[in-house]
Amino acid sequence: MSDHEHFMHRALELARKGWGTTHPNPMVGAVIVEDGQIVAEGFHAQDGGPHAERVALAALGRDPKPGAAMYVTLEPCSTHGRTGACTEAIKAAGIRTVVVGATDPFGDHAGRGLEVLRTAGVEVTAGVLERECTDLNLIYNHWVTHRTPLIAAKSALTLDGKIATRTGDSKWITGEAARSDVMEWRRLFPAIAVGAGTVLRDNPKLTARRGDEEWSPIRFVFDGLLRTVTDRTLPQVYTDRYHDRTIVVTTPHGGLGYVRKLRDMGVKVWCLPSPTQRVSMAEFRNRCVQEKISGVYVEGGTQLVSEFLQERQIDYFFMYRAPILLADEKAKPGYSGLRTEKLDQAIRLTEVRHAAFGDDQLIRGRVAYPSKMHVDETIFSIG
Fold it and tell me: What are phi and psi of 252, to 5 degrees?
């Protein structure tokens, strides 16, 4: 490992301290190095707070020595927002060497910060651990590039692509280590989503839990007919201490009485236009843009994830695969609803990353849709 990589690894560790707390801003870490030693560190902790570079400079508490270098996971900003341009702070401090991980894809930056520093005579090295630094900000990168939320689907699958037995038994396909990793991703995403079937069957909490710490993202429940509101015993996501973080996504076919009931309990309702009893995923994405929700982690079952896929509205996949084989054609598949007759009509993943959690594997990557994708109308389902 080179010195550049060593110091950038530390900057990445610092950046991850902002895991889930910086939206819609990116996670960024920075270190200042003098004579081969780290003398100051900083990270961006929350939206509106000081950027990592300024935190590191403040932690140093003095002028850097001649020859000092700054390592930062993301290109320093060059525009004057709420905290001022970090390029100006770097120049004013007298740092003459800057090592950068990833270029900021935000249009007003996008390499301009590197250019500003170089023009000022700062020696800039870019692209150190670029893949890792870019991967760190999946949600931010998608949000500023596409101006829509990153909608990611998560599945826990057997080797033959099943999410439950024919009787619905699914606890647990994956082991504890893989399930703990899911909690980490829940903590990162601003919102999590499930379908009515999952709520009625499992009554999930939909919170992120790490040891004694519990945190609730926005919790979307997709329920086109408001089936989850009809029982006297309501799901806990409508009644627990985080109920004001729950949003039910429905259609005009769900019934105004049930909508009023939810709102009277403090639960939000998005009633999206739809000609059928099925929620339009495109309309859902548009509403997320309006509400500035930059990422959604979809943990629904076969129906919800498949409906997102049928409308080409999944951007990213997290697929946890366990060494279990059911070999039962009536076991519940992970996905359905498409008619894929040739391999060139298949959905593929790009920018793929792999991880192991005990005996389980995680495959994750960006979704690439084929030019032609046929929905199997015989499997049309109601959301």
Answer: -65, -10
